[in-house]
Amino acid sequence: MVPTLLPGWSVSVQPVIPTRLKAGDVAVFFHGSKLFVHRIVVCIFLGRWSVLVERGDACPSARRLKAEAILGRVVEVFDDRPEPVPHHVWQWSRTKRLRVAFAVLTRLAAAKILAKLTGLFRWIGIPSRKDDGSSPSGAGE
After folding, report:
1. What pLDDT digit, counting tens, does each position of 40-73 carry?
2. CA-to-CA distance for 64 and 55, rounded, in angstroms?
3. How far apart are CA 117 and CA 99, in angstroms?
4. Predicted TM-score of the model (pTM)
5. Which residues have CB under 8 Å from 111's CB, separation 6+?
6. Domain ranges of the chain
7. Which of 25, 4, 3 is nearest to 13 (CA)?
8. pLDDT, tens digit, for every residue of 110-132?
């Protein structure tokens, strides 16, 4: 989480049900056998289906996260001073959360959505140009 959280800083973590997380929250979770503190950039829950995407503030890429790996949400950050670091230092504004969430969702889901739409169109009988093989109607007649 550098530059937002610096090495040596401590965090206070509150246990949380994953469905209570929102984009912009800083979460603590396991990835493999390592413990991470990263920001949630996309958080969508529809019944039993969920999409959580995390990214460290200095990481160029994002990763999908399993809801069961989440241990909690960071509620306070402490540096070498006795009082907590103010929220505005380590939390995002709503506008930035929405912009980042949209960008990540667009990149992650665009190919999957197009693949599903192509399959749906084939299923209902609308051929794609590649599948059609014939020229457009009226051409060459």
Report:
1. 988 888 888 888 989 888 888 889 999 999 999 9
2. 9
3. 25
4. 0.60
5. none
6. 10-130
7. 25
8. 556 666 666 666 666 666 555 44
Strands (E), 56-135: 63-65, 70-78
Residue type at 79 in one-letter notation: D
Both tokens of residue 112? 């999957």
Length of the chain: 141
* Helix or strand run (H / E) with residue 39: strand 34-46
d(Cα 33, Cα 31) in Å, to the nearest integer? 6
Of the CATH numbers 3.30.110, 2.10.109, 2.60.40, 3.30.60, which one belongs to the domain with range 10-130? 2.10.109
CA atoms 55, 59, 60, 61: torsion sign = negative
For residue 23, what pLDDT is reported?
87
